[in-house]
Amino acid sequence: MKKRNGGFWLAAPAAAGFLVFYFVPFLITIWYSVSFGIGKREFVGWMNYEDLFRNEMFRLAMKNTCRFLLTSVPVVLTLSLLLAIILQRLQKGAKVLRMIYFYPMLIPIASTVLGVQFFWG
Prior knowledge:
Blueprint lengths: L5 H28 L13 H8 L1 H34 L4 H27 L1
């Protein structure tokens, strides 16, 4: 009879990588945010966050960031959708526009392939 934990062993490397490279640094960052400096291990609780939210420059930066997001994201999404609809309906010149759009994405790949072929040909 086969064991049913084969999936566990397949997922274990990914889970270990997640723990090592994401979760542990996240916990360390949380600890640093509630302690006094990086070198000292003195727990100060919410004092760092209180200082942050009392800082006038931080509040101004958050206000500007929210304004930017609330204006730029809808504008960019709307313009992108309209451009996509126009290009989808466009019959004449569609191939040229697709070529203009995709060439910047293809050039790095093609140059890498040519470089590899040249050096290790």
